[in-house]
Amino acid sequence: MAPGPGVRTVTDRFTRPLLQRRFRISLAEIRKGPPQDAPMTDQASGIRRKLITIFCADVQGYSALVERDEVGTVTRLKQYREIMVDLIGRHHGRLINTWGDGLVAEFGSPVEAVFCAVETQRRLATRNAEDPAMPPMWFRIGINLGDVMIEGSDIYGEGVNIAARLESLAEPGGICISGTVFEQVRKKLDIGFDFLGDREIKNIAEPVAAYRVQISPGIARPAPVQMPGSGLESDADAAIAKWRGQAWKLGVLAAFLLIVNLLTSPGRMWFYWPLLGFAFFLLMRWPSGVDPRRLWQSRQ
Question: In angstroms, rounded to a whole number, what is the distance separating the alpha carbons of residues 85 and 97?
Fold first, then answer.
């Protein structure tokens, strides 16, 4: 028989205070937050995360320069790298690593990183002009602001990969920055920027906005012959060639469907429905940031 209203059972008298006590303990734990010794990163393995500005640089056509004059090229590379390392330090950056003709540094400020890159390219352009008898040595610089993993003195992660890819998009003697860097520096530096479009980067899910930094109209940068697969022009041509290959395959498939349609039901044309789907697919697959007029220019 159920107890009437206002009647407290024996169980009620024991369980209610216990539940209230547990509720007060839960509130106290929520207010206190997680334990101080619970790490947000894998500190046991020495890996931590940090938001930094990554600065990547390498020499355009370095292999050709070495083939032409190995000793002279290596000597000049050391001299040019000393200039870059000095400027990185002046702008509160930290040299992370060097390999071959490449260099990686980190900055706490995107503004300092871009300022350092501009000053570096101007100094190196002046150095090239001082010895016109020697083939010029042009560096390309890519800068990205991103979250990275730090282990000891090395850095890893998506942010580093993006910076390296932007470096390959830069012109000889030029600078290419990501959209995250552009948003931080566009109103803080007295230089111009050119939008290069959203670029697809290998192993990166979403396209990355890329910008060319206008260093100075007074500095002449005679670009060497573009190496296959490098530079902005070759990247656009490669993307168009890939798109044209997809269009060719779909065109062959459309012709096959037309033949099947004519042989099976010539009185009812249905092949144009998948043809519309193919056209929509090709429209969506057109390379981002590439002028469609280049499709005809590349065929001339």
Answer: 11
Domain boundary among 171, 197, 224: 224
The pair of structure tokens assigned to 142 is 């890519």
Q: Give me the residues paired with residue 79 across strands.
A: none
- Residue at 36 is within a domain: no
Query: 176: burial class by Cβ within 10 Å (0-12, 13-18, 19+)?
Result: buried
Q: Are residues 112 and 220 in the same domain?
A: yes
The domain in which residue 69 lies consists of 46-224
- Closest by CA to 238, choosing from 202, 275, 203, 270, is 202
Distance CA(180)–CA(110), nearest Å, equals 9
H or E element that contains 56: strand 47-59
Question: Is 14 inside any structural domain?
Answer: no
Is the domain of 207 the same as that of 242? no
Maximum Cα interatomic distance, the chain, rounded to a whole number of Å: 108
Round to whole Å and give the CA distance between 55 and 177.
9
Q: What is the pLDDT of residues 233-290, one digit of tens each?
A: 555 666 777 777 788 888 888 888 888 888 888 888 887 788 888 888 877 777 766 6
Q: What is the pTM of this model?
A: 0.61
Domain count, the chain: 2
For residues 191 and 242, state if they share a domain: no
Alpha-carbon distance of 62 to 219, in angstroms, equals 21
**Rounded CA separation 57/84 (Å):** 10
